[in-house]
Amino acid sequence: MNESQAGPSPTGPEPVADRVLEQEDMMEFDVLVDVRLRGGIADPAGATIERALPALGFDGVTGVSVGKTVRFTIAAADVGEATTLAEDLCASFLTNPVIEDASVSVSPVGGSA
Amino acid sequence: MAKTVGVVVFPGTNCEMDAVFAVERMGGEGRLLWHADDDIGGVDAVIVPGGFAHGDYLRPGAIARFSPMMGAVAGFAADGGPVLGICNGFQVLTEAGLLPGALQKNSGLKFLCQPTVLRVETSASILTGRVPVGTELSVPINHFEGNYTCDDETLARLRDEDRIVLRYVDNPNGSVDDIAGVCNEGRNVVGLMPHPERACDELLGSADGAVLIGSLLDAA
Questions:
Q1: What sign does the dihedral B120-B122-B124-B126 (CA atoms) show?
Q2: CA-based nearest distance B105→chain A, Å
Q3: Is residue B77 within 8 angstroms of chain A, CB to CB?
Q4: Which of A54, A87, B3, B124 could form a disulfide with B44 if both were Cys (CB 3.0 to 4.6 A apart)?
Q5: CATH of B4-219, one of 3.50.50.60, 1.10.3720.10, 3.30.390.50, 3.40.50.880
């Protein structure tokens, strides 16, 4: 049943959440996922906004695209593990790789890193 | 004995009774399958019907594929059981990885609710066994995200393997290669955006969908 094209697995993602949380070694990280439609994928919201802008007096605005952001907090030992977990979550659930791309930003909660 | 067709119901599904009506109109027995259960209960075929499963939150079908019932449906499909996804059900099957590609927003940027003419491109599927290639059928569409897309390699495979089941005669939504419906490698999982279950009686404007639902019962 499996299709060769990159896409969600028929059996669902590997259970990345099944790890044991050892609280004393854990930090919390803020994660921001920016989901964008891939080039060539229909973006009616972006097209509609772009068409409306001249009527509002905003000329010269092009390339409008509308995506979505997903924010959450994740517990991990370090920024590397948090990033890996967030990217796994992104690839297996938050995006459909056939039509969407995403970038993941991770920073310690309350930190400046 | 009548063949039994399970119709999966998620929160937000709204075409389940249309599907049951069509199945019973064609002599089968429809049985609703709640998404949170994990047993298809010995049915002979499964329909994943239209609607807005889990509110279409995140993406159409994205959350529905994690429902326990979808694990059972995937197992049934892997054993060769006939599975038909209609509209939102097609979106669910692509998200679940049971069919290739994805459904993006219509190219005309409008929600479309209208009759369409479909051309049957293969008789070798659980949806078209009764229908000669080239037959044109009037079946309605009712969707915003029905614009089928896939990468070039997948499209070439679908063509080479005769897996494009239905094409639009007059493409309403921008779907690549006019694709209205595709099947998996085993030809036992089919997804389409149009609604054959809403075209099973002349009172509904067309009875052309009856032969498709009848084909599904043959395969069951």
A1: negative
A2: 6
A3: yes
A4: B3
A5: 3.40.50.880
ipTM of the complex: 0.82
Burial B46-70 (b: 16+ CB within 10 A, else e): bbbbbbbbbebebbbbbbbbbbebb
The two tokens of residue B218 are 């043959």
* Catalytic residue chosen out of the listed positions B35, B54, B143, B195: B195
* CA distance readout (Å), B109 to B85, B102, B167, B173, B211: 23, 17, 20, 8, 31
Q: Is B16 a catalytic residue?
A: no
Number of domains in chain A: 1
**pLDDT tens sequence across B116-172:** 999 999 999 999 999 999 999 999 999 999 999 999 999 999 999 999 999 999 999
Taking only the tens place, the pLDDT of each residue in A31-51 is: 999 999 998 898 888 999 999
- Check if B102 contacts A (Cβ < 8 Å): yes
What are the pLDDT digits (tens) for B40-82? Answer: 999 999 999 999 999 999 999 999 999 999 999 999 999 999 9
Q: A98–B150: do the CB atoms touch at under 8 Å?
A: yes
